[in-house]
Amino acid sequence: MKMIINGKKVDSESGKTFNVTDPATGKVIEAVPKATEKDIELAVDAAVTGQKIWAEIPVWQRVQVLRKFLDLVEVNKEDLAQTLCAENGKPISEARGEIGNIPIGFSGFIEHAKHYYGSIIPQGTEQGQDKNIQMVTREPIGVVACIIPFNFPCDLFDQKVAPALMMGNAAIVLPSSDNPLTLMKLTELLVEAGVPNGAIQCLTAPGAVKSAAVADPRVHLVTLTGSTEVGIDTAKIAAGNLTHSALELGGNDAFIVLDDGDVDLAVEELVWGRMYNTGQVCCASKRFLIHNSLKDEFAKKAVERIKKLKVGMPSDESTQIGCLISEKAAVKVEGEVARTVEQGGKIIMGGHRDGAFYEPTVIVDVPKTADVAKDMEIFGPVVPVIGFDTDEEAIEIANNSIFGLSSCVFSRDQKRAFKVATAMEAGGAVINGASFFRAFEQPFGGWKHSGIGTEGVFSTFDEMTRVKTIVLKNIL
Amino acid sequence: MKMIINGKKVDSESGKTFNVTDPATGKVIEAVPKATEKDIELAVDAAVTGQKIWAEIPVWQRVQVLRKFLDLVEVNKEDLAQTLCAENGKPISEARGEIGNIPIGFSGFIEHAKHYYGSIIPQGTEQGQDKNIQMVTREPIGVVACIIPFNFPCDLFDQKVAPALMMGNAAIVLPSSDNPLTLMKLTELLVEAGVPNGAIQCLTAPGAVKSAAVADPRVHLVTLTGSTEVGIDTAKIAAGNLTHSALELGGNDAFIVLDDGDVDLAVEELVWGRMYNTGQVCCASKRFLIHNSLKDEFAKKAVERIKKLKVGMPSDESTQIGCLISEKAAVKVEGEVARTVEQGGKIIMGGHRDGAFYEPTVIVDVPKTADVAKDMEIFGPVVPVIGFDTDEEAIEIANNSIFGLSSCVFSRDQKRAFKVATAMEAGGAVINGASFFRAFEQPFGGWKHSGIGTEGVFSTFDEMTRVKTIVLKNIL
Amino acid sequence: MKMIINGKKVDSESGKTFNVTDPATGKVIEAVPKATEKDIELAVDAAVTGQKIWAEIPVWQRVQVLRKFLDLVEVNKEDLAQTLCAENGKPISEARGEIGNIPIGFSGFIEHAKHYYGSIIPQGTEQGQDKNIQMVTREPIGVVACIIPFNFPCDLFDQKVAPALMMGNAAIVLPSSDNPLTLMKLTELLVEAGVPNGAIQCLTAPGAVKSAAVADPRVHLVTLTGSTEVGIDTAKIAAGNLTHSALELGGNDAFIVLDDGDVDLAVEELVWGRMYNTGQVCCASKRFLIHNSLKDEFAKKAVERIKKLKVGMPSDESTQIGCLISEKAAVKVEGEVARTVEQGGKIIMGGHRDGAFYEPTVIVDVPKTADVAKDMEIFGPVVPVIGFDTDEEAIEIANNSIFGLSSCVFSRDQKRAFKVATAMEAGGAVINGASFFRAFEQPFGGWKHSGIGTEGVFSTFDEMTRVKTIVLKNIL
Amino acid sequence: MKMIINGKKVDSESGKTFNVTDPATGKVIEAVPKATEKDIELAVDAAVTGQKIWAEIPVWQRVQVLRKFLDLVEVNKEDLAQTLCAENGKPISEARGEIGNIPIGFSGFIEHAKHYYGSIIPQGTEQGQDKNIQMVTREPIGVVACIIPFNFPCDLFDQKVAPALMMGNAAIVLPSSDNPLTLMKLTELLVEAGVPNGAIQCLTAPGAVKSAAVADPRVHLVTLTGSTEVGIDTAKIAAGNLTHSALELGGNDAFIVLDDGDVDLAVEELVWGRMYNTGQVCCASKRFLIHNSLKDEFAKKAVERIKKLKVGMPSDESTQIGCLISEKAAVKVEGEVARTVEQGGKIIMGGHRDGAFYEPTVIVDVPKTADVAKDMEIFGPVVPVIGFDTDEEAIEIANNSIFGLSSCVFSRDQKRAFKVATAMEAGGAVINGASFFRAFEQPFGGWKHSGIGTEGVFSTFDEMTRVKTIVLKNIL
Q: Which residues form a coiled coil (chains A, B, C, D) (predicted)?
């Protein structure tokens, strides 16, 4: 496939390419252009021009263009799902789900954009302002670089590209080099739907080259979902030009079951909250803090339940758990599990790797001092169980982390559940459900090293626009 | 005076001090502690503890504490004004005005905090969320470093400290080394009013030591008003810990008079918009773009009007224009005026310096290619007049700057005024008034190199809190 | 055609019918059932049941049903436009426009409903509430009677039925007896699209029978657009059961041209603002207050401009002005013009009636004491010109009316325009445009005898729901 | 005491008076003027003038006036409390509490008024509006008649007069004839604080004369708290002029304890929720629906707990339960208890009357068919216990009432609690607390025969203002 720069399907100006591989089979799917800094520059050139044209188009007409895009997605949905499955390793059923989310996510932003109102600060409410009316409006922020991770490329494309476009910005999509193909196709569909040249582009660039986009002073916002390490590097580069950045980064979410929690419900939520996408989820539940009186029951039932899940080739219709994004990723998980065992954990299920496949794994007796109980995020289907005695101890363990993405608590007592939820140093707190909860509406975002800013229909427009106050001075 | 750390009046642990000088007379007013990185660390230690205590106090009780502070300010207002006048060089009348703003600004934040509501994303509005209720709440962000500039120290103290405290945060005040005394006094009054130890502190620190506060990972937000250069450095350091930053930086605001503009009104607004605080205002009008048919009339009337202003010692009751913050600052202005003359401008009034005093100065025939017409911000009472022929040319000149703080346009025609206001790449656009407009309510903030984020009663709470979404999963 | 009760196409239980006539030709188009109070009772029975079913369907699924309705409208649009033209007398071009508005209006409500959030009043903001969280939610109001006038039946159907359905209510449509056919067809399409039985119904009922719906205690909201007389009667009946009522009633909007107003623009706006729909518009400009220095020029140019409009048979493609809704309506206009002449006006154009057709008419020298200058609303293409000398006099004349629907002012001076706009005792004030302005978003509603409540995407949901505060007491 | 009309303390023009009596002793406290329709007319005359003057005063200055009023209340608070106790019969401790609420309530409205923003509907969001900006503003509604009940005269004064004044309206206070004295004093203090003549007035008028205020077309809003019967009559009269009305009326709130509810907590909440103000509370819990497995325990514990309450003379410092507002009121309660017994209830505690005193009374075995279980609201300290078997049955009984003010449910299970709370056909649903919950912030208001509109800092301004949309047509 080609990149999209200035409305055209192009190769890299260098002529170089790199391969996209199916992680389940190791086979090359296709070669894609390897973008250079020069390509980035050309794309930003086009974005600057395209943004001005796109911003002149009224919101309701932008809606028509994006609705046409959704029609094209509908026509191509099976092809998109198969592409996503192949390049990502996620089960085909999950890939279909993610493609099926596109109309949900895009529609949210489309609709809300038409009812995104400005504000008036009336005369006379503040001393000294008796005759002045302040009109608070929202203007496009300009060129937006969208750096998108491998795990849910389409969901994040929805979260970033839809609001960027609806607010009159130009979006430059920078997919993960592991699996850019689906996003390249989606970008083509946006062009086909009528987004003007330069207003939507897609470049397949190595990480260092992505940084060139962040460093370009004509880029006004970088919206990135990725690791904390990459997030910090990006923030530093962006700071050099006072470029805005919105960062959704790593997490190590606590999954807390209090002594009155519903263990069966918790186990069922674990399946969704830790096994979905083979555990490669930023807000997956990653630390299972189970009251000591329940932890054996929980572990036992978790093993029983997980065993019922079918692990298999992603393309197989019945597969429920596929492989990781790459063998490299699986090797990393392998090392992290080993470290957890060294630090006191006992594996009672799983623990083996085969290529990019890593078995669903349950580790009990993990001490709260272990790395995984604090700052080590495992991006795979691993369930480390950590015991605790009191609500306070659970809160303390949960908050003893550099991360603060989301969290969850199971209790039958509403007061205790709220007490824990309120105490969580995290951007989310799910009561009686897994921390893996991300509605498109939700202002999703982490505290501490889990990010800056929130993302979702409820709030993204605030980040993708700039405030302008038009003052009617002495008008009254 | 002493610093305030953990509720105590203290010296620097190093025992070192530096002098605060009256810029109008060159006399030392008082020595203050020269904070070190160790002092910063102690302050952050105390802030972490104090913030937790303060956040537990309900909003309505925090209000009572801050209202008591306002009572203390009322009692001490003349002393505060004299201190501000002496250390800053601004006319005593303006110093009194700034102290008089404290109750206006604080009240705004106090009141709004009591009516700052959360949101509910109801079940069933998004596919897949039929049984889940999302409660979007706002939590304190934690420890806030408030870096405050010399020009309006109290106004910016209001803008930063009041919302930080109302939202349950701990504030560490870092005043300008040129004039920290008034803020040290205000901090003492907050302690006296009952803000707990550590929740409000004030350290007199050189710039490099301030950076230690920015670099401390336990500081969650840096709110800074200052130069773009310092802003960028701060942003870079903050990025290292994913510390939030809110930056109000430099500006070079255009003051546009269209061919149908009211010249007399424009000249009157110039007095306020360029001469107030001897021109040391971030959103002062700094580039006077006057239609060629009006520029001679404008320049002539401006000179006549400015001549009526009384320049004198700041402490003199009748003085309208005082000195700059330091002789160094005045020398800088002198150099910038010289450069403007080199680049084609002609001085028709003023142009001389005497110590920290710089005469009100009008420069005509400034070409649009001159530095002052683009990116050179002059922080003094200087009026460079640049001609233009068409509305489009005026817009082009105005936007041809790295800055985008505010702007203004004078026209009798509402449509033309809105057209220009809408085209301004800036956070503000005043119609028929100077760009120097900053209501406490206003979400004030710059575009491009003028900053990130907005500040004001309308919006600051969003920056001084973190979103938490509490999900009631399967509740219905 | 038949009525729709409980999902079925039915006759009146009495078997009686009445004729719907083409006002331009006097020919009967079709007979429709003449509903009785028994029919109303059956409909309310079905609505009570249907509402409960419909309210259980999540918002996003209701959206899918209404989008299917819009697809059906698209297929049937020419038939709907022809029906509307025939039964209403409006030019076919205007009828097509009104059908074309259906997707615009419905989409607005559809979209906004998906992002209509609740609020949280957090703990601790009010003394005594330190441990309580208040969740402010919106629930369906129940059964909504939609009483719709003849002049823009589809636009008002959009404004009433779309929000009623989106909020989970049952809607009973009660069209004007003059022209119910288009709405009967639209109701059929809603049923076809999948709105459950009873949740959408349409009854062709004489005014007195409509009152039975208002009087039924199981109807929770009456939303009516119509005359002030009918509005007051309705409000009285509704009061008996504490039934909510939203009333958009009569108007006699002032159209003010100040001495610096743009006469050409004003004349052009007059065409839209007074001649559209042959003047049968609630917020048409109905009193032309023209500064004495401009009134002759205005009258002359108005006559010239109006003469260019093509009066003709509504069904003729080139017709710009059709007939009134009935000969009776035209006779009423004839009488009102006669009264205006008696009271001092001079006809300089038009003034004749032919069946249901009434000529575009301009009357000058109308004294401000004339009925038309105050409380007599003429529902036809009549332009009474009233002179004035000062802005204050114009304001006084404009406000000297029992009505307060909308208003407008023409001035090149923004301050004067705002001064007049602010002084208007009316729900709208258009600057440099006719008072006939009604965006679907706008919270449209009159002051004084022009109504109670506002209607539009921005605000209607507030009227079509009931607030429920769920208190989590002592939760923290 | 005198009435306040147009800033003066006056008698009725008729010279007539009526007596205000202490219900606990039967002694006359003082005679007050008996207003006539002529007095009402004079007051409305003054209000029309006064409102215009008051509306011209900027919001921040209105705040200063009301803050001065609060200072005066502080000085007079014990006198006000004693007056309220004497004329009302409520315990002095409760009277002090109600006076103590004045600063809480007024401050809420004062603060929120300064941050009550308008909205902008931006260009281009709706098809056809590409060049128009809509500014949605809020204007004073005009003259507001405040009809205030006997039970919490000061709380309702806060809820009605504070927002009326803050929004620039004139308020005419119409207290209950039983106990007008405290409100007369408060009105005097508002005049003393500087509210202009006519902008605040107080008339002591019999019910029929109050209707004259409702009927005056120059009154724009009637805000009434009272019985449903009076509310309906008022609504009918208001309808005649399209006068807005906001009605907080009767209630018969269900207090539901599910089988897993905390009986001890429920009993404790009963004390507050049914005995406060001797049960004369609109949203008191009035129907105790207790699961059959718990009802005996509940009744027994309720009796024990209530016995600890001290019944006595209202003026006695230790009294916890005083008398009713009048002997007539007590006789009415006596009859209602008798009817409940006739219909199957058994009194297990209390049941006797002594003058205006009515004993705290518990009635068990009340069948769900009894009047008290449906539409008979008892305004006194009576606890009728009704059993049920399933959650569904509890919901059915609760909703089988013409009323829908508030409600509550006790359950340890969050899901069941939300299910019941959501099912309540009422404006409030308290989880694990009595239905008697009314924060000043809360948008308090009933469904069905319990009222129209909501009242509270969160929402009242919407009812006490009129929307005006200023359209900047073709501005862009």
A: none
Neighbors of chain C with 3 or more C-beta pairs under 8 Å: A, B, D
Pairwise CB contact (< 8 Å): B113 & C125: yes
For residue D407, give the nearest of D261, D285, D288, D278 by alpha carbon: D285
Does residue C245 contact residue C234 with C-beta atoms inside 8 Å? yes
Cβ of C415 and A474 within 8 Å?
yes
pLDDT for the residue B206: 95
Q: What is the count of residue pairs from A and C with beta carbons less than 8 Å apart?
A: 48
D475 with B418: Cβ contact below 8 A: yes
CATH fold label, D253-439: Aldehyde Dehydrogenase; Chain A, domain 2 (3.40.309)
| Residue C255 near residue C398, CB atoms below 8 Å | no
Instruction: Give the containing element (helix H, strand E) for C244.
Output: strand C244-248
CB of C208 within 8 Å of a chain D CB? The answer is: no
d(CA A97, CA B428): 44
| Percentage of residues in chain D having pLDDT higher than 70 | 100
Given a contact cutoff of 8 angstroms between Cβ atoms, the answer to whether B468 and A427 are in contact is: yes
Neighbours of chain A (3+ CB pairs under 8 A): B, C, D
The two most distant CA atoms of chain B are separated, in Å, by: 75
Residues C397-416: tens digit of each pLDDT = 999 999 999 999 999 999 99
The structure tokens 């019922």 sit at A308
**pLDDT for B9:** 98
Q: Which residues, in sequence order, are CB contacts of A3 under 8 Å at separation 6+?
A: A9, A10, A11, A12, A32, A33, A35, A39, A184, A201, A202, A203, A204
Residue pair A54/A170 in contact (Cβ under 8 Å)? The answer is yes
Structure-token pair, residue C118? 């609740």
**List A87, A98, A188, A248, catalytic entry:** A248
Please say whether the beta carbons of A68 and A194 come within 8 A: yes
Residue D10 to chain B, least CA–CA distance (Å): 37
Mean per-residue pLDDT, D453-466: 97
Q: Which residue in C94, C98, C188, C248 is the catalytic one? A: C248
Tell me how far CA of residue C30 lies from CA of A438, C182, C322, in angstroms. 55, 12, 21
Spans of chain B below 70 pLDDT: none
Nearest to D120 among A114, A120, A431 (CB): A120
Write out pLDDT tens, residues C384-398. 999 999 999 999 999
pLDDT digit string (tens) for D317-365? 999 999 999 999 999 999 999 999 999 999 999 999 999 999 999 999 9
What residues of C are in contact with residue D410 (Cβ under 8 Å)?
none
Name the burial class of residue D332, with classes exposed (0-12), middle (13-18) and buried (19+) by CB atoms within 10 angstroms of its CB: middle
Distance in angstroms between the alpha carbons of the first and the last residue of chain C: 60
CA–CA dist C80, C187 (Å, integer): 12
Please name which of A287, A269, A323 lies closest in space to residue A86, comparing C-alpha atoms.
A323
Say which residue the tokens 């006695």 belong to. D316
> Is A229 a catalytic site residue?
no
Q: What SS3 state is found at C270?
A: helix
pLDDT at residue number C412? 93
Beta bridge partners of B134: B121, B471
Taking only residues 417 to 446 of chain B, the set having a beta carbon closer than 8 angstroms to any beta carbon of chain D reads: 418-419, 422, 441
| CATH 3.40.605.10 assigned to C3-249+450-472 | yes
Domain segments of chain C: what residues?
A: 3-249+450-472, 253-439
Nearest to A125 among B240, B249, B441 (CB): B441
Q: Is A121 on the interface with D (CB under 8 A)?
A: yes
Q: How many residues does chain C have?
A: 476
Partners of B136 on chain C (C-beta within 8 Å) are: 120
Which residue carries 């909510």 as its tokens? C244
Residue A242: pLDDT band (50, 70, 90) is very high
Q: Of the residues B188, B248, B455, B463, which is catalytic?
A: B248
**According to the model, what pLDDT value does residue C405 have?**
98
